[in-house]
Write a structure and sequence with these properties.
The chain has 613 residues and is of the alpha/beta class. It has 20 helices and 27 strands. It is globular. The protein binds fructose -6-phosphate (F6R).
C-alpha cells in the first residue's frame, strides 16, 4: 500500500523525505508528493515514480525542517497529480498524508459539502483533512485534538501524519490497522510506514499500536494517546535490528535478483538455533509455548493470500503427511466473509511476509473471536499480524523489497517444514530414524540451494527462447503442485504473460485444449512419488506439440529424452522438493521480465503490502 515518511527536527527535511520515499517506493509507486513547512506551506506532487517528483522539485523551494512525504498506491481516484498526497485543507492550513481507506468518506464528504467545503481530488484522504479543518474551525482545538476527534468519526483503516502551518513545532500521527513507526532521535522525530527510512538516523523506535495518536514536538518531547479513550499510553521503545545494507541492492541489478540469491542464507537463518540434526531436535519458541494445544488440534486452518497462500498449500502436504494433522488452506479474503465454522479446537495459522495484509488480519480477528488459537508465520518483526497472534515464529528472511515475493516464500516453507517435522515426531508419526534423516537433509538444503542457483545462465537461455509466448502453463504434482501455482504467479506479475498453474493430472480436464506448438509448459518433476505419472503428463503435452521445460532431479535420463529443455537440480527428500524446485521458476520469470523490459521490482498495479481489502 502507500508509503509514509515525515520529519521534525533540526535537519533539512527534504533529503530525508526523498530518501525515505525511495526506500518505501516498493509499497506503491503511482504518484509521490511532499509537503514542507518553512513559514509557508509548500506542497509538491507528481504522478509516477519518486524520480518524477525529484525532477519537479529541483526548481522549487525545498527548505524546511518540518515535512512529510508520501508514495501512493491508488484506491480512491486515479493516479494523477491531484489525487497524489499530501492533501491540503480548504484554508491551506493543514496537510495530511494517509495510508489506508476511509470507508465512510462519502457520508462525511456530503456533510462537509453542505457546510461549504469544496474538494479538488477524488480521494477519501482529502475528506479527512477537511473534517479536521472543520473541527478546528468550529471548536478552536489544537491540531492533535482536532485530529483525534476527527478520527473518532471515521470508519476504516489509516496511518496518517498531519502538519499545521500555525503550529510548526508539532507533527501529529495516528494509526488504525495500518502500520506506522515513530523514530526517536536526538531532538528530532521521524514517522514512517516501516523502519526503512529511519534506520540510518536512529535505532530507537516505537511501533504505534492500533487506535493510537502520537504528537512529536520539536523540543524533543512526544506523547501517545488512545484515540477513543483519550488517555495517555506508555510507549514501548524498541531497538531496531535492521541494517542499511539489508535495504540496498548489494551489486545486483534488482532487489528481486538479490533476494533470489539470498535464499541459501535466508533459509539458513530461518533454521539457525532452531534445528540440530546431530542432537536430533527442532525448537520453535512459539510452538513450545502452546505445544499441547497445537499438538492436539483437531485441525489446522491456514489463512493467507498470494504467494503466502501457496506456502500454505505446501504446508497442507507437510502437516498431513508428516504430522497427520488435517489441514484446510483458505484464502483469507474468502474465510473472513463466509461465516466459517471455527472452534477452540482449531489452530489457525496465518502466513504473511509483511504481517500487514488486511484480509489476513481480518480473518485472524474472526478466528480469534471464535476461540481458535492463532499462530503467525511472519517476516516483518513487530507487524500487526505478529502482534495479533497468540504465538508464532518469524522467518528471519530480512527485508523483502522486490514486490514479487521470493525469499519470503522459501522462508515460510522452511519454517512450516520445521513445524511439521517437530509435530510429526512428537506425535509419534515419524520414527526416530526418519526424523534424523530428514533433519540431516534439511541442514543440507542451503548448500543445495547454492547449487540450484548455478542454473542461472541456462535458465536465462530458456527465457530467451520463450519470452515472447503470450501464455504459459505450469504443472506439478503433490508437493510441487503449489510450486506450479507459484511459478505461474511469478511470471504473471512481473512479465505480464498470462500463466496458469495446475496439478499435472488436471491438465486433461481442460487446459490441454490450450496446448499447441506455441505453448511453453513448465513441468516440475523432482518428485519421487508419482514420477511415472508426470512422465505420462509430459508425453501428453508433447503429443500436442507443447514446448516442455522440465525441472528434474540431477541425472534424470527419462525426462531428458522427452523435454525440450531441462533444468537439473540436486536430489532431495520429497517433502523438501519445493524449496529447490521453486528457484529455477523464480529465475525464469525474472529473466523473461528483464528481456521484456519490465520493471522487475515494481511491476505495474502491484504494491508490496496490501493493507486494504
Ligand atoms: C506475490 C506476492 C503477493 C503476496 C500477498 C500476500 O509475489 O508478493 O501475492 O504474497 O500479497 O502478502 P503477505 O505475505 O505480505 O501477506
Amino acid at each position: 500500500m502507500c508509503g509514509i515518511v515525515a520529519y521534525i527536527g533540526k535537519r533539512q527535511a527534504y533529503p530525508i523525505l526523498i530518501k525515505g520515499l525511495q526506500r518505501l517506493e516498493y509499497r506503491g509507486y503511482d504518484s509521490a508528493g511532499v509537503a514542507l513547512l518553512n513559514g509557508a506551506m509548500h506542497v509538491y506532487k507528481k504522478k509516477g515514480k519518486v524520480q518524477e517528483l525529484i525532477n519537479f522539485a529541483k526548481t522549487q523551494d525545498c527548505e524546511g525542517t518540518l515535512g512529510m512525504g508520501h508514495t501512493r498506491w491508488a484506491t480512491h481516484g486515479k493516479p494523477d497529480d491531484i489525487n497524489a498526497h499530501p492533501h491540503t485543507s480548504g484554508d491551506g492550513r493543514l496537510t495530511l498524508i494517509h495510508n489506508g481507506i476511509i470507508e465512510n468518506y462519502a457520508t462525511l464528504k456530503t456533510a462537509l459539502m453542505r457546510l461549504g467545503h469544496t474538494f479538488t481530488s477524488q480521494t477519501d484522504t482529502e475528506v479527512l483533512v477537511h473534517l479536521i479543518e472543520e473541527l478546528q474551525r468550529r471548536e478552536h482545538l489544537p491540531i492533535e485534538e482536532a485530529v483525534r476527534v476527527a478520527l473518532t468519526k471515521v470508519v476504516g483503516a489509516y496511518a496518517i501524519v498531519v502538519m499545521d502551518k500555525t503550529e510548526p513545532n508539532k507533527l501529529v500521527a495516528a494509526r488504525k490497522a495500518s502500520p506506522l513507526v515513530l523514530g526517536i532521535g536526538q531532538d528530532e522525530f521521524f514517522f514512517a510506514s516501516d523502519a526503512s527510512p529511519i534506520v540510518e538516523y536512529t535505532k530507537k523506535v516505537v511501533y504505534l499500536e492500533d487506535e493510537q495518536i502520537a504528537v512529536a514536538h520539536r523540543n524533543g518531547a512526544y506523547e501517545l494517546r488512545n484515540i477513543f479513550k483519550n488517555q495517555i499510553e506508555e510507549p514501548f521503545v524498541q531497538q531496531l535490528n535492521l541494517t542499511i545494507e539489508a535495504l540496498e541492492k548489494g551489486g545486483y541489478d534488482s532487489f528481486m535478483l538479490k533476494e533470489i540469491h539470498e535464499q541459501p542464507k535466508t533459509i539458513g537463518d530461518c533454521m539457525r538455533g532452531r534445528l540440530n540434526a546431530e542432537e536430533g531436535w527442532i525448537k520453535l519458541g512459539g510452538l513450545e509455548e502452546y505445544e499441547q494445544r497445537i499438538g492436539n488440534a483437531q485441525r489446522f486452518i491456514i489463512a493467507a493470500c498470494g504467494t503466502s497462500w501457496h506456502a500454505g498449500l505446501v504446508a497442507e502436504y507437510l502437516f498431513e503427511e508428516l504430522a497427520r494433522i488435517p489441514v484446510e488452506v483458505e484464502y483469507a479474503s474468502e474465510l473472513r466473509y463466509r461465516n466459517p465454522i471455527i472452534t477452540d479446537k482449531d489452530v489457525v495459522i496465518a502466513i504473511s511476509q509483511s504481517g500487514e495484509t488486511a484480509d489476513t488480519l481480518a480473518a485472524l480477528e474472526l478466528a480469534k473471536s471464535q476461540g481458535a488459537l492463532i499462530y503467525g508465520i511472519v517476516n516483518v518483526v513487530g507487524s500487526s499480524i505478529a502482534r495479533l497472534t497468540h504465538a508464532g515464529s518469524y522467518i528471519h528472511a530480512g527485508p523483502e523489497i522486490g514486490v514479487a515475493s521470493t525469499k519470503a516464500f522459501t522462508g515460510q516453507v522452511t519454517l512450516l517444514t520445521m513445524m511439521a517435522l517437530s509435530l510429526g515426531y512428537k506425535r509419534g508419526k515419524i520414527s526416530k530414524t526418519q526424523y534424523h534423516k530428514l533433519l540431516t537433509e534439511m541442514e543440507n538444503l542451503p548448500s543445495k540451494m547454492e547449487q540450484v542457483l548455478k542454473v542461472n545462465e541456462q535458465v536465462k537461455y530458456i527465457a530467451s527462447e520463450i519470452k515472447d509466448a503470450p501464455n504459459a502453463l505450469y504443472l506439478g504434482r503433490g508437493y510441487n503442485f503449489p510450486v506450479a501455482l507459484e511459478g505461474a504467479l511469478k511470471l504473471k506479475e512481473i512479465s505480464y504473460i498470462h500463466a496458469e498453474g495446475y496439478p499435472a493430472a488436471e491438465m486433461k480436464h481442460g487446459p490441454i485444449a490450450l496446448i499447441d506448438e506455441n505453448m511453453p509448459v513448465v513441468v516440475i518433476c523432482n518428485n519421487k512419488s508419482a514420477y511415472e505419472k508426470i512422465v505420462s503428463n509430459i508425453q501428453e503435452v508433447k503429443a500436442r506439440k507443447g514446448i516442455v521445460i522440465a525441472v528434474v532431479t540431477e541425472g534424470d535420463t527419462i525426462i531428458k529424452e522427452l523435454a525440450d529443455y531441462i533444468i537439473e537440480i540436486p536430489d532431495t527428500e520429497e517433502p523438501f522438493a519445493p524449496l529447490l524446485s521453486v528457484i529455477p521458476l523464480q529465475l525464469l520469470s525474472y529473466h523473461i521480465a528483464v528481456m521484456r523490459n519490465c520493471n522487475v521490482d515494481q511491476p505495474r498495479n502491484l504494491a508490496k503490502s496490501v493493507t486494504v481489502e
